[in-house]
Amino acid sequence: MSQNTAPDLSLPTEDDVTVITGKSTSRPSAAKVWQETVVKLRFQSKDDLLTKDVSYLAFDVLKAIKQSFQTRISIKTNANKELHTIQAPTNDDDFQKLFRVSHRRGNKAKKIQSQSWIIFRICTDMTLSTIRKEQTVHDALQRSHGNLVYYPWTEDVHDVVPLGFFVGPLPKYTTST
């Protein structure tokens, strides 16, 4: 016995409308995917900040991030280990083992403020602006005169280029014979 299948003449479903017109559906989307993002935590100051000061300011901001988003964020150290608990640094060396602190001196004649920053990685399903807008994180950033920005980390810029200086001589500094 053969069955005749008639074409479906019913109204299009919401999924059909989405495919045809590109409209978004009102249904909740699937679970968001965790992504690793490289973040630059930058502090500005009129006078030069000491490494000790930067480590305490960064500790305050990282603690606020971890407390606000306990299970939704994972902070990674330079050794690619997850930072489960954030403790106040007892000295500069303890903090430098976890995160490298970089500095740029200011110039009062040119009215350039000094900057200090640390670069770290986070794994999360949120955007960086969501993290910045969280009230406790926002307050910690304002207290420390800091900001969180996305940092376009590429391995070839930071790892391969310095290696070239060790492999061979630079033609600029090599005298010809």
Automatic annotation (TrEMBL):
Domain of life: Eukaryota
Listed name of the protein: Uncharacterized protein
Lineage summary: Eukaryota, Sar, Stramenopiles, Ochrophyta, Bacillariophyta
